[in-house]
Design goal:
The protein is an alpha/beta fold. It has one domain: 3-Layer(aba) Sandwich (Rossmann fold), CATH 3.40.50. It contains five helices and five strands, in the order βαβαβαβαβα. Helix 2 packs parallel to helix 3.
Length: about 130
């Protein structure tokens, strides 16, 4: 399946997301904040990113800015957030949004849709 990077400072949420995605057959890498995620991406570019917004050091929005500056090909991003007032802005930037709390079923469905669209885009472009 896909290689997914999960970025969230809440260890419980990271564990739930990791378990859910691994049970769906994905390879999962985790980071507790944006700086660590950028470092992880230097070693391996993921097929998709699951990202929290509110984190210490480098938050989700800062991570997205830095990622756009550093990379020409940004993997698809699913933002997990309790700050639903930002959902329309994030969708406008091309990101998926899933409101916390979320169900494992909703997470798997959204990841599958996100990765399917990304793969279709690669086929058309390639």
């Amino acid at each position: 399946m896909a290689h997914i990077l999960v970025v969230d400072d809440d260890g419980a949420i990271r564990s739930v997301v990791r378990f859910t995605l691994e049970m769906a057959g994905h390879d999962v890498m985790v980071a507790g904040e944006g700086e660590a995620a950028l470092e992880a991406m230097e070693m391996h570019t993921p097929d998709g990113i699951v990202l929290d917004l509110m984190m210490p050091r480098l938050d989700g929005l800062g991570f997205l800015d830095r990622l756009a500056e550093q990379s020409q090909a940004v993997p698809p991003v699913l933002v997990l957030t309790a700050r639903i007032e930002l959902a329309d802005d994030l969708r406008g930037l091309g990101h998926r949004v899933l409101e916390k709390p979320f169900s494992p079923r909703a997470l798997n469905r959204t990841i599958a849709e996100m990765l399917g669209e990304s793969q279709q885009g690669h086929r058309v472009a390639g």
